[in-house]
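Ticket #4471: structure output looks truncated?

Reporter: J.K.
Steps to reproduce: submitted the chain below (92 residues) through the standard prediction queue, then opened the result file.
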Amino acid sequence: MREGVPRGDGKRRVRQASRLDEAMLYATTPHMFAAGAEAAAFGRLRGAVKRPLYGCDCYAYALVASGFGPHLVCEARREMQPRSEEGEGGGG
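Returned output as attached by the reporter:
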């Protein structure tokens, strides 16, 4: 694995794993995936990685980008949808 740290040329690289069984995975919680096919698919992914980690929410994406954290992040489809109605009337 190469670490994703700043190089002399100012470019950054994310942390790489050669194989899925060497990768670390972040998800907010395993309970976010809908029962059935979605939960089963996440279960297969979780079982294939070296270490599943939970919590962190959107900070996990920053960790991937920095190269100092997990190799991938998996979220439930419904968690990625815009929630504009929640912000209405809230001053935002």
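Triage note (M.O.): checked the attachment and the full token line is present. Residues 41 and 84 are 28 Å apart (CA to CA).
Status: closed, working as intended.
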